[in-house]
Amino acid sequence: MYSEWRSLQLIIQSDRGHMSVLHSYPSNVGKDVANAVVRPLGQGLNSSSATSNESILKTDKEVKWTMEVLCYGLTLPLDGETVKLCVDVYTDWIMALVARRDSIPQPVIKEPNLYVQTILKHLQNLFVPRPDYAHNQISLCMRVLVAVQKLARESVNMSRETWEVLLLFLLQINDILLAAPTVPGGLAENLADKLIGVLFEVWFLACMRCFPTPPYWKTAREMLANWRHHPAVVEQWSKVICALTSRLLRFTYGPSFPPFKVPDEDAILIPTEMDNDCIAQTWFRVLHMLSNPVDLSNPAIISTTPKFQEQLLSVSGMAQEMVQHPCLKQLPQIFFRAMRGVSCLVDAFLGIARTNIIRERLPPYGISRPRSDSAPPTPVNRLNMPQASSTMNTTPPHSRRMRSVTVTKATVKTSSGSTAHPPKVTHQTSTTSPLSSPNQTSSEPRPLPAPTRPKVNSVLNLFGQWVFDAGLVHCRLHNGMNRDGSMTGITTPAGLDVRRKPSQISTENMVANPLFDANEFPDNYEAGRAEACGTLCRIFCSKKTGEEILPVYLSRFYMVLIQGLQINDYICRPVLASIILNSPALFCSDLKGIDVLVPYFISALETILPDRELSKFKAYVNPTELRRASIHILLSMLPLPHHFGTVKAEVLLEGKFSNEDSSLHDKPVTFLSLKLRLVNVLIGALQTETDPNNTQMILGAMLNIVQDSALLEAIGSQTELSVGDSTHISFKSHSRNSSGISMTSTGSSEATTPDSERPAQALLRDYALHTDTASGLLIRSIHLVTQRLNSQWRQDMSISLAALELLSGLAKVKVSVDSTDRKRAVSSVCSYIVHQCSRPAPFHSRDLHSMIVAAFQCLCVWLTEHPDMLNEKDCLIEVLEIVELGISGSKSKTSDQEVRHKGDKEPNPASMRVKDAAEATLTCIMQLLGAFPSPSGPASPCSLLNEETLIKYSRLTSTSKNHFRYFVLDNSIILAMLEQPLGNDQNPCPSVTALIRGMSGRHAWTMQLHHQPRGSRASQKAFVPEPHPPPKDDVGIKYNVKHRPFPEEVDKIPFVKADLSIPDLHEIVTDQLEVQHEKLKKLMAKQILYENALEKISEERLSKTLFPDPVTECIPPPPAQEFQTARLLLSHFGFLSLEALKEPGNSCRPPNLIALDSTLAGFFDDIGYLDLLPTRPFETVFIFYMKSGQKTSQEILKNVESSSNVQSHFLEFLLSLGWPVEVGKHPGWTGHVSTSWLINACSGSEGKEQEEVVVPDDTGGGIFNGEKKALYYADALTEIAFVVPSFMESSTDSSESGLTSQETETQMDLLPSLLKQTPLTLELFPNHSENLSNSQRLSPTQKSKRLPLGRTVPPLGPETKVIVVWVERFDDIENFPLNDLLPEINTGVETTTNSSTSLRTTTSDKDVPVIFIHPLKTGLFRIKVQGVTGKFSMVIPLVDGMVVSRRALGFLVRQTIINICRRKRLESDSYNPPHVKRKQKIVDIVHKYRNKLLEPEFYTSLFQEVGPKSLNP
Question: DSSP H helical segments within 1135-1183, as ranges?
Answer without folding.
Answer: 1138-1141, 1163-1172
